[in-house]
Amino acid sequence: MGVINEYFVAASDAEAAQALENGPPDGVIGPDPHTELVALEAILLGLDPDSAEAADLVSRADHAVDVAADSTYDRMVLKIGSATTQLIGTTTFDELRAHVPRWAQTEDMAAYAVPDLHDVIAVLHPLFTAAAARGACDVYVWMSL
Hints:
alpha+beta; five-stranded antiparallel β-sheet; 6 helices; 5 strands
């Protein structure tokens, strides 16, 4: 059994933390926020996903910040960085789709077919777009082992 990553939008960290026990009611399954989402972000920024510059994206203070976790870290709620949210949320769906073949070639996404990643983008993009447009909301990930 693997890790489940459910993306959702919330108005605050406190609201997002309420999803800790049972997950978000309206979450969508998506990529690992620590590695797979960062690879997409790097590509959108014009970086080689395997470069030192891309690795530096993970070192940002607001990268996948823990908002809540149970005592064993079997369930966690993470907040996606605002720069990541704005980048993905302000990129058009067609622009994102154009980058999917490159994303599929990264080491982290090698197990996924391009059509499957198109489906991932189709469900994730509206969340990022909504959060980027509202400004008072953020994208979060409920992770469960």
